[in-house]
Amino acid sequence: MATPHISAEPGDFAPLVLMPGDPRRGRRIAQEFFDDPHLVSEVRSIEGWTGTVDGRPVSVIASGMGQPSLSIYATELFREFGVERIVRVGTTGGLAEGQQLGELVIANAAHTDSAMPGLTLPGVTLSRVPSHRMLEAAVREARDRGLPHRVGPIISSDTFYGSSMEKYRALAAIGTLGVEMEAATLFAIAAAEGKEAAAILTVSDHIFTDEQQSSEDRETGYGAMVRVGLAALFG
Fold this sequence. Notes:
The chain contains 7 helices and 9 strands, in the order βαβββαββαβαβαβαα. By secondary structure, it is of the alpha/beta class. Helix 3 (about 130-145) links the parallel strand 6 (about 105-110) and strand 7 (about 150-155).
């Protein structure tokens, strides 16, 4: 049955879900990559679509921006709609030296400054990590396609403005590849629900060089990310 934020019925969503942040990107992914895409949910302008890719059922739904918003959709999908795997496909601000715009970041962990993934044990800080099987499948696909990519940790931040350059330099110094706003909570929820998740990101700007993709490039340059995301879902 429908939930407060998803108007679908059981069976409307496939067990495998792509999750961009932007609702418009979700619609374009369905229209460009799915066979027979059909709308299964539309609440608060967040559309959910289901179709097939190479004969396998797949869905896409946006998370909105930030970890609190993502937590709503990921939790409802895992608990109420039989979803087993979610891949976040979105953008990241690059932190690594020599990173190029359009390069992929495949996250093998997610630091966070947020309280959202607060699945903690007394005295223990839990790691926020993706499914190893999905991670391996994503890396293999990127390598096989010859796509520029890096594998490493990212930081999921609650702030878009206001973070200091000193903070970013310190994160870069310990190997952090990029900053975004959702993945750590996705990994935490998947772990709590006994499900699987991954994050495949495209470098849209670089924190230290001020390079950034144009709006047009952001809108159109996501094909490689989606293909690697699908490989992670199918892996």
